[in-house]
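Appendix B. Chain record.
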Amino acid sequence: MSSWKRDTAICFGVVLLMYALVGLVFGLVFGTLFDCVVDLTVKSVLFMLLVGLVTIGISCLAVSGKGSPGKDWVELDRGRNAGFFDRLDDMCARAGMATPPVYVVPVDFPNAFAWGKSPERCYIAVTEGALRMLSTEEVLAVLGHEISHIAHRDTLVKGIAGYCTKALTVSTMVVMVLSVMFFGSVNAQSGKRSGGGAAGPAILILMVLALFLLLFAGILALTIPGACLVTRFGVSRNREYLADAGSAEITGNPRALISALETMERGCADGTGRYSASDTMSWIVEPNSLRNRGIMVSLLSTHPSTENRVARLEKIAEMMESGTYKYDKRDRGIVL
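Structure tokens predicted for this chain:
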């Protein structure tokens, strides 16, 4: 299974699991109140799985559009840049896709991004700052990175991961509320059935189950939202590493990407790279990225540090030069 399909399947599986958990707690809560625990629990789990599938469908539709280029963007003219597009066509052919439109974004800081969830509906945007500060080889290496994102549907994976993060956070909060309701209902049933005497074995078992669910829901509420964010950003960072390797493969020039990344980070760190935070995951270099980042900043960053990316590309360059580098087209990993 290709890496983008595997990552997407994992996201969907976790979302369905959380929705099933919501259905389970719902069935236990209201099944206890109306003396139909088993029947209601089965039906509520099945219903919530259906809701989860609908949510997944909506997330796929929501991130499946190509998106419209900005009104002030200018499409790079193929006729006036024939030599450049000849090389770009060759790179895209090596990636197994058609050449997408390339737009120039009128901003001063050097950066680039790809948009589109499949190779059939996509485009690449590069800033005026990047075209001004980078050499032709460096620009091609940057576009190779973006082509790799498109070919392996990284934008789709990142978009789905974002929607799954929101769905899991909401599901966790619902589980917490239902667990509190379940505990309250069991406690009320205990007082009603015991009539002031000792509670029966069934009530004691339900009380233990209610306490367990309440503790479990509390742990989920404390950990899942943060874990989702860390995982989502981890997926984003991993896709950046893989796209760097993809660029090295289709251009055969990892050192050009190394120098481009270093130039773009300097350009984005000098104050000219301010941009909407919602666009951070799209850029090849995170705007206003910091060189000396602590552990927490690194965990919550959408991109790896440039130092780490350069170190990996240096290793790829050395392996290419020694003839020991092999490219895994399925997972875009380094195979010795």
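Further analysis of this model is presented in Appendix C.
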